[in-house]
Amino acid sequence: MKMNKRIIISGGGTGGHIFPAIAIANAILRLAPDTEILFVGALGRMEMEKVPAAGYKIIGLDIQGLNRKSLLKNLVLPFKIIKSLKAAKTILNSFKPDVAIGVGGYASGPLLIAARNKKIPYLIQEQNSYAGLTNKRLGKGAERICVAYEGMEAFFPKEKLFFTGNPIRKESVTIEGKRELGLSEFGLSPEKKTILITGGSLGARTLNQSVMARLDEILAADLQVIWQCGNYYFEKYNQELEDTYRSHIVLKPFLQHMDLAYAVADLIISRAGAGTIAELCVLSKPIILVPSPNVAEDHQTSNAKALVSKNAAVLIKDSEAEEALIVTAIDLLKDASKCALLAKNSREMAVINADEIIAEEVLKIAEGN
Fold first, then answer.
1. Residue 323 phi/psi, 5° resolution?
2. Are residues 161 and 75 in the same domain?
3. Is there a single domain that holds both residue 13 and residue 131?
4. Residue 111, class by beta-carbon neighbours within 10 Å (0-12 exposed, 13-18 middle, 19+ buried)?
5. Which parts of 156-254 fold into alpha helices (H)?
6. Least confident piece of the model among 18-27, 130-139, 278-287
7. What is the total count of domains within the chain?
8. Which domain holds residue 235?
9. Does a structural domain hold residue 1?
10. pTM across the whole model
11. Which SS3 state, helix, strand or coil, does residue 99 take?
12. Tens digit of pLDDT for each residue in 157-205?
């Protein structure tokens, strides 16, 4: 393989895009240590902090997504797109990448459009089971499209598709032998069943409200709950959570040691982001998914249904969660055979080494193969 390849990775916005991007970059460097990697993100988004913390250089574009709640805020969007396309072209002219990678997020579109216009080969990593508009439009010009779900030929040219799965944070899903440490970390009893509820790094209002509405049922079932509510919501719920419930509820704004939370969980309740699902499948635990309705093309519902169709997860609609979520979780934990079946089927959908599979394809493209 030729030395000193230059690869640009674009995208971000949420941990679901950023963590896979970093995993791919790490895998590329394991396979080809002399590779130069540059990230392109969106100014003001979390990738501008997370990527440098992982040891990579990142350049930010002044770009935003379509605001579905405020049409007024969209007035500047065309100007930001034009500005970002020009900036992306400048970055490509300066860095001269052999290949570009788009992982989704605001910055991915302008960078890949600029790469296409300059005839720089690019790879799309489509994480969801329902492809977004930008990726669908860019798919025809891509060298490879790496996907994690079946049936993606509905959105992309079939001959360009590579089933790779979604990259995961391996440190988060390495849970073997960590149960005792996890119980100690969270002050939990080894005698009680434990539910992990996570709305991701930002939290999820519906999941939080669903817990608060059913605290008495949790106590009556003698269950323990690790509840990641998100930084934005923590102060509110920390004040509202009465002492009566604190022996059963461990409230956290953010989980620094996700592996320990996963290790002690007997059941996991989560949103249905693609990256999160990829991690959950590796764990082989029963899962309840509550898709967020506030995402483009309702792709989280499509993600969740892909698991439900394999009897690998239970789906609760966001609109029904406050009434049904905790009740469903309590009933599920009473059904050992159902829990075992969900855990087994989800594990069968896991792809452990997606980062390395994608990295290999990137390096092939860089070599002109």
1. -85, -40
2. yes
3. yes
4. buried
5. 170-173, 179-186, 205-213, 215-220, 231-240
6. 130-139
7. 2
8. 171-348
9. no
10. 0.86
11. strand
12. 999 999 999 999 888 999 999 999 999 999 999 999 999 999 866 668 9
